[in-house]
Amino acid sequence: MSAIREANPDDIQEIRNLLRKDDLRTEGVLEPGTRYWVALAGEKIVGAIGLEPGETSVLLRSEIVHPDWRGNGLGRELTQSALTWARVAGYRVVYCFSTDAGAYWTALGFRACPVNDVVHALPNSQQVELFARLGWLPTEAAFQLDLL
Fold first, then answer.
1. What is the CATH number of the domain that holds 65?
2. Is the pTM for the entire model greater than 0.85?
3. pLDDT at position 99
4. Residues pairing with 74 in the sheet
5. Cα separation, 111 vs 3, whole angstroms
6. Residue 93, CB-side half-sphere exposure with 13 Å CA sphere
7. How many CB atoms sit inside 10 A of residue 106's CB?
8. The dihedral of CA 56, 61, 28, 138: what is its sign?
9. What end-to-end distance do the CA atoms of the chain give, in Å?
10. What's the rounded Cα separation, in Å, for the pair 122 and 52?
11. How many angstroms separate the CA atoms of 75 and 98, rounded?
């Protein structure tokens, strides 16, 4: 059994450790302006997801579930927590980058979109800036979900 709650600064190291286990980027986790949620098994963080809000759009990032907890819908619960927050906050579109999990995102209602759409909608996003610096944007896959 797990519970989902909004992350706080005390969670940063556990979230980063979880991301590193899957070779995911840890830059920007819980930085000012971001929102994160964690899934708990007892007191242990077994999943996380984050959002980087822009003006009318948000960038979904850092979705991770510990391998022992995969396959039971926890990732979808985390995603729904983030999407619910974005809808209630009035955001119109949610974007994400994913080179390996496109089928997962499309099963959740996302559709493929040009990477430039994300860059244009969220030019100051930490993840967009990081991927631009690393030269990754030309090889990324992007997805979007219209909320309104």
1. 3.40.630.30
2. yes
3. 86
4. none
5. 28
6. 17
7. 14
8. negative
9. 32
10. 9
11. 14
Query: Residue 93's closest CA among 139, 142, 129, 126?
Result: 142
The Cα–Cα gap between 7 and 13 comes to 11
Name the residue with tokens 């999990």: 101
Total domains present in the chain: 1
Which residue type, as a one-letter code, is found at position 14?
E
Closest CA to 3 of 36, 47, 34, 33: 47
Would you state the structure tokens that stand for residue 104, as one six-digit string?
């997962």
Report residue 42 as tokens.
């007892």
DSSP class per residue in 92-141: -EEEEE-SS-HHHHHHTT-EEE-HHHHHHH-TT-HHHHHHHHHT-GGG--
The DSSP secondary-structure symbol of 90 reads T
Q: Tell me: the pLDDT tens digits for 65-116?
A: 999 999 989 999 999 999 999 999 999 999 999 988 889 999 999 999 999 9
Tokens of 53: 């809000």
Q: Which domain holds residue 82?
A: 3-146
Determine the residue type at 148.
Answer: L
CB atoms near residue 34 (< 10 Å): 20
Specify whether the CB–CB gap between 17 and 50 falls below 8 A: no
Closest by CA to 79, choosing from 114, 104, 116, 113, is: 104
Query: Tokens standing for 125?
Result: 């996003």
